[in-house]
């Protein structure tokens, strides 16, 4: 049977909380053949990044999808949409009217995968560890509003915040706040390699080839106590060189499901499959965005007018229709259209693409044209269409006569260290939100500890507007501050949003739970998968 395309909407920020499924170590099938999931994500331990799976370092969608299966967090984003709900905690909440004191009580009988008890001190150790190591990935910034952490007995953790932060429960649902076993993690040093020890629904065994993890074997953790119902005994995640190889493996039956990152052509082909196909395509609401980032200290783009002129020339509608079709939508802000607080700030400022307006911007700033630039992109992280996207961006900019652009593709394990060292003037990135709130499309890019290591600083955003937005428990009330931030970004252009995309899963028809295997933040929820009877 072909279910055609099951579409789950992602309307975030206005939905009531949804309760997570209840379960424990005895839930799930516990047996049967392993479910095999394909991915094009690559997991490499390099000299620049020797600890890719340490929660204090990891900060990309691929590594987080490993950690979310293995490392338990106090809170978790629910099966559907809505506010985060307790996971390792039995209850959490603000205990003051100013949203500056947040207390959590742990579930009883929590255990690490080795059988040792999880205590409040372990939670404090894990989160303080990430805060103190301050890895160059920038992931520690998610915990920046924490002032101190105290424990009361073995099962209560109290967070004292520097300032009000209504988004704090979301941050406790991210892997950087994951609980790790102090027996296996040093307080002031990252754990190198591919071992992970936590209290999550699965244990991990990594199969490697040199410095690369080629398969992640997730086995149901018999000691797991939490909110999740685990519907299988084992899931194997296999890394493929590219989307074509992954697609071939699904067709041959070597894998049961594939997700990141399918090509637009694969998605289109699967959507047109006949009713007797043994592969289902599931479309899910997504909050992924793509954008260009700028090193605002680089001579080529240091002048704001150059960045503004690029914003004025690039035709997002043409870019999306040519490369991604109906699988993406043009984006005119860092905050996606489906998130509370979104404003079309770039369209409001620049309107439709216009070479004449861009020429005028450059002339007023006495910029000699054509401006010579290199657009850098990664070849193996965001899918095979990235090259086509950057070739089209190059053409749009060069056809204006105002730019002389070349493009350069680099593998992810080289691309990220180069970007963090400031070696690129302009580079393309994607963002899968840590949690579905506008704050997570603003602070990681613009706060003082931004993950891009960008030199761009705006004191109004950092000192006033971000803190103001976080004080509003009702996220609709944060709209004024968030709109001001987005308007400043549209004027200064430290980043240039391009499009937001949908999510897709392709799976054999006998695999169940596929409608929930990804949430809106692109989190893989392997515990949802089961093996049923093919129809």
Automatic annotation (TrEMBL):
InterPro entries (UniProt xref): Peptide/Ni-bd, SBP_5, SBP_5_dom
GO CC terms, sorted: ATP-binding cassette (ABC) transporter complex; cell envelope; periplasmic space
Signal peptide: 1-20
One GO BP: peptide transport
Top-rank taxon, per record: Bacteria
Matches recorded under SUPFAM superfamilies: Periplasmic binding protein-like II
Pfam families with a match to the protein in the record: SBP_bac_5
Positions of the Solute-binding protein family domain: 83-451
Family named by the database record: Belongs to the bacterial solute-binding protein 5 family.
Protein name stated in the entry: Peptide-binding protein
Source organism of the structure: Streptomyces antibioticus
